[in-house]
Amino acid sequence: MMQFLAKAGLAAMLAAGTLAGTVAPAAAQLSIIIGDQDRDPPRDYRRPPPPPGFGRRPRGCDPRLAEDLARDWGFRRPRVVDITPRRVIVQGWTRRGPDEMSFANVRGCPALRR
Hints:
The chain has 114 residues and is an alpha+beta fold. The chain has a domain at 63-113. 32% of the residues lie in helices and 24% in strands. It has two helices and four strands, in the order H-H-E-E-E-E. A four-stranded antiparallel beta sheet has the order 1-2-3-4, covered by helices on one side. The radius of gyration is 34 Å and the shape is elongated. The relative contact order is 0.11. The mean pLDDT is 82. Residues 1-20 form the signal peptide. Keywords: Signal.
């Protein structure tokens, strides 16, 4: 009977030791949610929400890219003079004098005319 009690006590201590090791990681994964899980966080009424598209890059032609492309086409001191919804117009100097070049206002700035 004494051996049975010793073995049962040893088994109980071994089980308690393994359970104690798993309690700490399991407690870190516990989250109690009361109510709807898919709700947005409450709005911050101290300032207005950001406008749509906030934090995204502009979709059109980047003016610096248009200037770099005009420089590759042989323009000296290129500068963007006008940006419309369809075109980006760059003026600069070439071998013949002042000149103008147009780029489409889409990603990549394809050249329209020189």
